[in-house]
Each structure stands twice: as structure tokens, then as C-alpha cells.
């Protein structure tokens, strides 16, 4: 790749792939952009007019939008917090030599292989159901009133479900990172008089920053678009208490048949994702280079 | 103070006994070198003293107090690891300051001590760098710096020079010896390189399969090895061993002569020496090492001759010991006959 000739050749060779990827992205994006400037309701076909930014102002001034925005950020933030902290603790635990380590590790990974809809339904019907759920059974067993998670704390419930799904991913990445820590470093710290906590905060945690960054970046991408869990459990309700932006776009386009406004919401979601990405890269992106 | 005493210390990993019962005394201020072939338990012994491994039985006494059950940090020992074990995310300064910070020393005192250590070790220009931006020798010095700021009772080194190139190794060897002379702290140094052991040690402990074969000053071991193993291990090139008729003549099962204690006589004579044909010749400039194949298939012996010795490959020569008392005699069990 050193000579000018080989560089030109390389560019020429990767051009088709780049062009294909570009088209793949540009065409849907520009279609969405185009729809977002139309009055486009599926109930009134053939009446599409150009209305400029009206769809955007409807979408952005809709009180549901602010609720959805906060919910999205709370959902992403909450799940990240639980998975990163929980993942570190679990990784610390799994890193200890213990009986049946292999099996325990497989068990820990298992939730990641369960489909989101299935796991959400299991949580909804088997755990959180106020009549038949396991939690209700437990609270009743100690003589308390069962708590109806999905109607009284819908967003928290969804955060718990999603966190349960993503915890294995975080654990796995952090465990691998932890195992790559040179044991002599820990021993050196031990000889230097560092107790267990000091060793964790001064040696282990700094060693994990890169892995944590990777976990946060990858999870954020997926957590911004959580949808299935909401659809099968709360349907965004009660009211808009558990509606995130993704679900709001869906509700606009397919429940209210307003493709124009939905498209505007989609574009807003794209912009939001980019803002989050820029913030993240600013804050933690420097951890990625050596 | 830094007096360390091992009393009947043993170590087993599962069912394999790595260290059989072992007694050893290390005096305050001594430079002790553990030397032995790979896998003989040198590192294990050092880690037992450091407290990084638990002894299976026996006691470790440091400065008169039983330290067997003390955690590593409370034994007042500092260790320099083979891989240096520097903290990669901390600057050189923070690396050196780490043990002091853990000891909750006030900031200004830490600053002063780090500066001092950096000065002694020529690290002043690198204090803000990360370990990844240093050369091997500089990393080594940072590791030593991290050890000396604690003012420990003893330093433990586990093959600290094995990752360095030959020239740097000679340099660092000297620096560590000088450090020992100026600090006068007890040092325990593990190596499998007998040259390092000979040049640095006050006292050498030769280990084989966890057993102490001999303890003594470098010259003691060189002059009067207790057994075949020590005789073969100390000295470079290795001592020549002959068995059978040659040995029987001296009333021993095996005799040994060092290459530097042999004299070359050109041509075949009938004196008391051994005749043979010259094989490979290694010219070092100052010395010439000749590998001589003895007549009658009695083996090969190495001879050190002058740099300007005229012998050529396939010459017939005779070698003989400088004097009778340069011939070491060993019995059937490999023990020295004195
Ligand atoms: N954690 C362990 N579990 C089981 N056996 C071990 C363990 N650590 C060391 N050993 C064994 O103990 C013996 C001594 O090991 P040690 O590391 O002390 O050797 P060494 O003398 O330092 O060798 P080297 O010069 O190669 O570093 C070896 O046979 C090794 O296989
Ligand atoms: Mg070793």
C-alpha cells in the first residue's frame, strides 16, 4: 500500500463496495427526507402536497415528543448504568476460580440468546404479572400487596428487562478484558500495599476503560432503537410513560397512518442518535486509541 | 534491617512437591543470588519469601518476627518482576509514587522521595512519560525506582535482566551492584545465568529441583564445589568431566578439570596428560577455546588457551592439568572427595 500506484489501484477496487453502501444508505434516507416534507396520510391517498417543515413542527411540538425524548435518554442511560456496573461485578465474580466455572459462564451468557420479544413476554407474564407473576407471589407470601410493575413503573420495568438482556454482553466483554490483565501487575500492587479496593480502582478499572468504552458505544447504538420490548409489554403506555422515540415514530406512522409526521420523527431520531454519538465520542472516544 | 530466615519451608502445588524442606539464612545487607536451571523452583522460593504464595509448611522469619502468615504488603519487602509489572496507565512519576500513596504519605514528602529516586536512577527526564514510551532499560529502572522509594527491608529481584540485550544487561548488572553498595539493603536476586550470579553475589544459593545443592561465596563455589552438579553449573565454559580409567587413576569415579586449568602441549607426548585431536576452535581474541576429541573415544574436553595459540583443526595435541590439585574428584554418588 506504499506506492502511489498501488494506492490508486486500491481506491479503484474498493469503489464498488463504497458506492453500494452509499446507495444503500442514501436512498432510504432521502426518501424519508422527502416524505417528511409531504402531507402524507395513508387514510387519504393521492392527496400528498408539499408542506415544508410543518411535519417537523407538529412532531416537535407534540407533548409526546418530549416525553419520548426523556424516556429514550432514561432508557439508554439506565440500561448502560446497570449493565456496566453489573457487568463489572459479575466479571469480577466469574474471574474467581470456583467449582463449575464453565457451566456458570454459559448460564450467564444465556439471556443474550433469547429473542427480545420472548424475553419481554416472559418477564411480563411470568415475573411481573400482578396476579400470576412470581414477584406477586413473593410479595403475597410475605403478606404485602402485589405491585403492578407495568402500569405503575412501566419505564423502570422496561429498563430492567432490557438490562437483563444486555448484561451478558457487557459481562462477557469485561470478563475477557479482565482476564487479559497481567497477574504480575496485581501482585506488584499487592506488594506495594494496595488493598483489594485500591487494586480494583487503581489497576483493574483503568485496565477496563477500553472495554467499558466498547460496551457503552455498542450498546448505545442498539438501546436507542429498543422497540420489541415496548410493543409486547406496555405499548408505550400508560399514556406516553414508556414511549421512546422509536416507538413514537411507529405510533405516528402506523397507528395514526401519518407517514409524513412519522418520517419527520425518523429524521429527528437520526439527528438525536448523531448528537448522542458525538457526545459519546467526545467523552470516551479517546479511550479507544492507545 | 533485613534478615531473612527460612525454616523447613516446603511448597507443594497439588500433589507435586516443588520445594522439599529447605533451610536458609540470609544476613542483613547481603546480596544473595538464587541460581539453578529452569524449573528448579527459584521463582517459587522468591514468591514464598514475598508472600505471593503461601508456604505448605515451615516458617519464614523476617528480622526476628515470624512473617509466615503476614500479607505481602506487611513484610516490608519490595519486588522487581521479570516483566517489570509497571502500571501502564500511570506516568513514571505515578508509578514510582504508588507505594507511597498507598502508605498514605503526605504529598510533599512523596514528591521529594520520587524526585530523589528519579535522580539516583537517571529518570528525571522521563517522569511524565508512560511506561509504554520507555525503552526496556528505562522500564527496568522505573521498576527499581518503585521498589527503592519504599525503603524496604529487602529487595527481591526475579530475573530482572532477562528481557534486556547483552550490552544493557552488563550495564544494569553494574548499576544494581552499585545500588546495593550505596543502599546496603539486603537483596535477593534470582537468575539462571551463572555469570550474573558470580559477578553480583556475596552469597550464591545453588538450587536443583527445589533442593539447595550448595551455599557459599562465588569463589567458594568455584574453588570447592560440593558435588558434580555445582561443579558443572558454576564456571564458564563448563568443567570437563572424565570417567573410567582416567578417573580411577586419581582414585575417583569421576574427575573434573576446568578449561582454564588445562595446558596445551603440541604434538603427542607421553606425559601425564591426555592426547587427542582438535575439533572446533572458538577464537575470542583474548582467549581461544578448543574442543579436543580424546583418543580412544574417551569423550571431548574443552581447553582454554591463549588468544595466539597456533593450534589448528585436526592437529594432534596433548592437554594436561596445570597442577594435580586443579583436578576435582567425585565419588560414585557425585559428591566431592576432598
Ligand atoms: N502455580 C503452579 N502450579 C503448579 N506448578 C507450578 C506452579 N508454579 C510453578 N510450578 C512448578 O514449580 C516448579 C518450579 O517453578 P519456578 O517458576 O519456581 O521455576 P524457576 O526456577 O523460576 O524457573 P525459570 O528459571 O524457568 O523461571 C516448576 O516445575 C513448575 O512447573
Ligand atoms: Mg522463574
UniProtKB/TrEMBL annotation, chain A:
Residue ranges of every copy of the ABC transmembrane type-1 domain listed in the record: 69-280
The UniProt record lists the keyword Membrane: yes
Pfam families in the cross-refs: BPD_transp_1
A single cellular component GO annotation: plasma membrane
Transmembrane regions: 12-35, 64-94, 106-123, 155-175, 208-228, 264-284
Keyword list, A-Z: Cell membrane, Membrane, Transmembrane, Transmembrane helix, Transport
Gene3D superfamilies, per database record: MetI-like
InterPro entries cross-referenced by the UniProt entry: MetI-like, MetI-like_sf
Compartment(s): Cell membrane
Keyword Transmembrane helix attached: yes
SUPFAM superfamilies in the cross-refs: MetI-like
Membrane topology field: Multi-pass membrane protein
Family under the similarity heading: Belongs to the binding-protein-dependent transport system permease family.
Protein name as annotated: Sugar ABC transporter permease
Organism: Pseudohoeflea suaedae
TrEMBL record, chain B:
Recorded topology in the membrane: Peripheral membrane protein
GO cellular component entries: ATP-binding cassette (ABC) transporter complex, substrate-binding subunit-containing; maltose transport complex
Superkingdom: Bacteria
PROSITE patterns for this protein: ABC_TRANSPORTER_1, ABC_TRANSPORTER_2
GO molecular function: ABC-type maltose transporter activity; ATP binding; ATP hydrolysis activity
Locations listed in the record: Cell inner membrane
Keywords: ATP-binding, Nucleotide-binding, Transport
Domain ABC transporter: 4-234
UniProt KW DNA repair keyword: no
Family annotation (NCBIfam families): PRK11650.1 (NF008653)
Annotated family: Belongs to the ABC transporter superfamily.
This protein's name: ABC transporter ATP-binding protein
Organism, scientific name: Pseudohoeflea suaedae
Top-level taxonomy: Bacteria, Pseudomonadati, Pseudomonadota, Alphaproteobacteria, Hyphomicrobiales
Amino acid at each position: 500500500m506504499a506506492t502511489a500506484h498501488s494506492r490508486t489501484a486500491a481506491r479503484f477496487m474498493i469503489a464498488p463496495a463504497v458506492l453500494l453502501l452509499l446507495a444503500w444508505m442514501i436512498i432510504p434516507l432521502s426518501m424519508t427526507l422527502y416524505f417528511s416534507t409531504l402531507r402524507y396520510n395513508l387514510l387519504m391517498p393521492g392527496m400528498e402536497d408539499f408542506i415544508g417543515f410543518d411535519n417537523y413542527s407538529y412532531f416537535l411540538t407534540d407533548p409526546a415528543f418530549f416525553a419520548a425524548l426523556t424516556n429514550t435518554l432514561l432508557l439508554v442511560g439506565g440500561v448502560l448504568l446497570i449493565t456496566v456496573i453489573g457487568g463489572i461485578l459479575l466479571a469480577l465474580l466469574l474471574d474467581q476460580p470456583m467449582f463449575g466455572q464453565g457451566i456458570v459462564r454459559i448460564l450467564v451468557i444465556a439471556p443474550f440468546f433469547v429473542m427480545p420479544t420472548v424475553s419481554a413476554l416472559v418477564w411480563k407474564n411470568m415475573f411481573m404479572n400482578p396476579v400470576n407473576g412470581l414477584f406477586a407471589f413473593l410479595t403475597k407470601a410475605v403478606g404485602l400487596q402485589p405491585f403492578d410493575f407495568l402500569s405503575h413503573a412501566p419505564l423502570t420495568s422496561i429498563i430492567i428487562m432490557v438490562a437483563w438482556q444486555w448484561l451478558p454482553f457487557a459481562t462477557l466483554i469485561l470478563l475477557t478484558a479482565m482476564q487479559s490483565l497481567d497477574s504480575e501487575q496485581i501482585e506488584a500492587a499487592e506488594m506495594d500495599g494496595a488493598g483489594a479496593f485500591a487494586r480494583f480502582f487503581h489497576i483493574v478499572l483503568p485496565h477496563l476503560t477500553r472495554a467499558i468504552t466498547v460496551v457503552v458505544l455498542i450498546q448505545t447504538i442498539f438501546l436507542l432503537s429498543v422497540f420489541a420490548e415496548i410493543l409486547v409489554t406496555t405499548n408505550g403506555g400508560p399514556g406516553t410513560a414508556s414511549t421512546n422515540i422509536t416507538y413514537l415514530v411507529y405510533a405516528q406512522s402506523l397507528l395514526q397512518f401519518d407517514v409524513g409526521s412519522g418520517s419527520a420523527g425518523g429524521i429527528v431520531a437520526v439527528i438525536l442518535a448523531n448528537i448522542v454519538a458525538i457526545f459519546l465520542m467526545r467523552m470516551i472516544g479517546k479511550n479507544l486509541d492507545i | 534491617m533485613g534478615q531473612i530466615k527460612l525454616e523447613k519451608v516446603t511448597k507443594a502445588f497439588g500433589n507435586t512437591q516443588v520445594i522439599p524442606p529447605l533451610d536458609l539464612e540470609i544476613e542483613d545487607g547481603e546480596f544473595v543470588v538464587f541460581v539453578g536451571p529452569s524449573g528448579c523452583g527459584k521463582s517459587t522460593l522468591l514468591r514464598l519469601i514475598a508472600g505471593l504464595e503461601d508456604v505448605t509448611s515451615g516458617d519464614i522469619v523476617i528480622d526476628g518476627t515470624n512473617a509466615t502468615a503476614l500479607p505481602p504488603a506487611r513484610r516490608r519487602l519490595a519486588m522487581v518482576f521479570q516483566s517489570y509489572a509497571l502500571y501502564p496507565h500511570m506516568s513514571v512519576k505515578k508509578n514510582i509514587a504508588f507505594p507511597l500513596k498507598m502508605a498514605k504519605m503526605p504529598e510533599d514528602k512523596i514528591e521529594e522521595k520520587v524526585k530523589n529516586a528519579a535522580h539516583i536512577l537517571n529518570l528525571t527526564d522521563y517522569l511524565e512519560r508512560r511506561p509504554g514510551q520507555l525503552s526496556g532499560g528505562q522500564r527496568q529502572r522505573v521498576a527499581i525506582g518503585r521498589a527503592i522509594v519504599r525503603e524496604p527491608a529487602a529487595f527481591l529481584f526475579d530475573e530482572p535482566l532477562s528481557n534486556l540485550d547483552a550490552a544493557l544487561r552488563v550495564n544494569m548488572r553494574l548499576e544494581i551492584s552499585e545500588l546495593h553498595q550505596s543502599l546496603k539493603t539486603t537483596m535477593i536476586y534470582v537468575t539462571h545465568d551463572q555469570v550474573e550470579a558470580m559477578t553480583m553475589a556475596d552469597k550464591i544459593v545453588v538450587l536443583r529441583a527445589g533442593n539447595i545443592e550448595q551455599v557459599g561465596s562465588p569463589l567458594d563455589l568455584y574453588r570447592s564445589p560440593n558435588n558434580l552438579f555445582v561443579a558443572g553449573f558454576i564456571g564458564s565454559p563448563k568443567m570437563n568431566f572424565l570417567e573410567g580409567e582416567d578417573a580411577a587413576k586419581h582414585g575417583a569415579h569421576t574427575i573434573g578439570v576446568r578449561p582454564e586449568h588445562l595446558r596445551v602441549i603440541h604434538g603427542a607426548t607421553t606425559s601425564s596428560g591426555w592426547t587427542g585431536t582438535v575439533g572446533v576452535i572458538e577464537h575470542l581474541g583474548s582467549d581461544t577455546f578448543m574442543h579436543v576429541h580424546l583418543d580412544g573415544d574417551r569423550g571431548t574436553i574443552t581447553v582454554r588457551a591463549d588468544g595466539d595459540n597456533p593450534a589448528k583443526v585436526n592437529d594432534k595435541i596433548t592437554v594436561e592439568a596445570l597442577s594435580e590439585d586443579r583436578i576435582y574428584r567425585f565419588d560414585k554418588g557425585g559428591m566431592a572427595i576432598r
